[in-house]
Amino acid sequence: MKQIIEAERKNECKKFCELYAWLKKPSREIGNGRREILDHIDKVRMDNKGSASSAVILDSLQMKLAETSHELLSTLLMADTTHISEDEAALYDRQIRLWGLEAQQRMRISSILISGMRGLSNEICKNLVLAGIGSITIIDHNVVTEEDLGTQFFVTEADIGKNKAIVSADRIRQLNPRVVVTADNNDIRAKSDDFFKTFDLVCLTDCDPYTMIRINEICRIFDKKFYAACTYGFYGYIFCDLKQHEYIVERKVAIPHKDEHEITKLKKNDEYVSFQCVLSKADWTEISDRKLKKISPLLWAIQILWKFHQEMGRLPATNDNSDVEKLLSLRNSYLQTNHINDLLVTDEFLITLASFALTELTPICAILGGVLAQDILNVLSKKGAPINNLFVFDGLQGDENYLILSFVFS
Question: Are 127 and 203 a contacting pair, CB within 8 Å?
Fold first, then answer.
């Protein structure tokens, strides 16, 4: 491992020198932002007595991110921060052996936005920070309440009344000091479109459908990866829109005339549909009844819940007869419009889901948070097939479904 690190250091030192020479070319050859970045790098080098410390340059350049060309900065960060120290190599040794040094390097230069600090997002943050992500920004305008103490392990009773993002960030940093953790106590719904430009990936948790639609469309415009997830008691979902994603899958192939196998790498490219598209009319008529029965009714039940949230501005209260009637009416309309058998989403199942809509259960948060965090790591490392587009989990049945929605939504 030490020899690998030394070889990487020499290679990346050469890369940094080449990049620095490239940045010195005339503006017309590399675009805007060249002078600002050069001046900033020179200042950092002087302040550190000529030592181009990866950590120092990374932290300093992140402060400049909003002022200069994001594409140019990303190139610079990729070139310099691929230098992994011996301490980092020891810390992430198992991960590096699992998915390789290059994949680990991609993760450690990634910037992620996590919205909403509840039980599910706590699990996501924990897993990503321990994996060695470059930076995470957590955003939540709400304050800690007594109810939060049940599923959120980054807050304590002493934090009641304080902002969730701020108090959580302090404890998240303690998990891995190498990860840059930033807290934002503003409402994500009030953020401008440009706010999302500086992140590689945006993950929303426990969001309303309108916010999910808006931010998903922004991410599509800026070519940012998008996730949205939520738990409803024993149930939960993960929605993923990568727009277009290229990745590598490994396959074990038999060697002809030998009782041996070799690993081959295949490059794949998947296309995704947007959240807005998923909320529109679907065409299930091409799917056979046999295949439809294999699809979890949770898929349609969650979409009906989204429809209710869109129309009423809130989740249903199952102790309110008018809410139950409205929910069942939306169910009937949705199933009829999408040509789905009424028997696939029963009254009992839909009302059970709705009754858990405002409930968080720690085991379900842990399962869904683990699946989502691992999928994010797969996407950033470009290793393995990610969720496309929807993952639903039924904790009562122990059932999980991965659903490729591009077949029915267009």
Answer: no
- For residue 159, the one-letter residue type is D
Report which residue type is found at 178.
Answer: R
Q: Compute the distance between CA of residue 259 and CA of residue 337 in angstroms, rounded to an integer.
A: 54
Tokens of 92: 């992430």
Please give the order of strands across the beta sheet that includes 399-403. Answer: 180-184, 135-139, 111-115, 201-205, 225-232, 235-241, 390-394, 399-403
Q: Would you state the pLDDT for residue 343?
A: 86
Which segments of 313-397 does DSSP mark as H helices, in order?
321-337, 347-355, 362-381
Cα dist. 367→90, 96, 238 in Å? 27, 24, 11
Distance CA 181, CA 178 (A): 9
Q: Are 372 and 227 in contact (CB under 8 A)?
A: yes
Check if the beta carbon of residue 52 is closer than 8 Å to that of residue 45: yes
362-379 in b/e form (b: 16+ CB < 10 A) is eebbbbbbebbbbbbbbb
Chain segment 158-202, per-residue pLDDT in tens: 999 999 999 999 999 999 988 999 999 999 999 999 999 999 999
3-state SS, residue 92: coil
Cα gap 106→63, rounded to integer Å: 20
Residue that is written with structure tokens 């706590």 in the block = 122
Q: DSSP state, 383?
A: B
121 within 8 A of 142, measured Cβ to Cβ: no
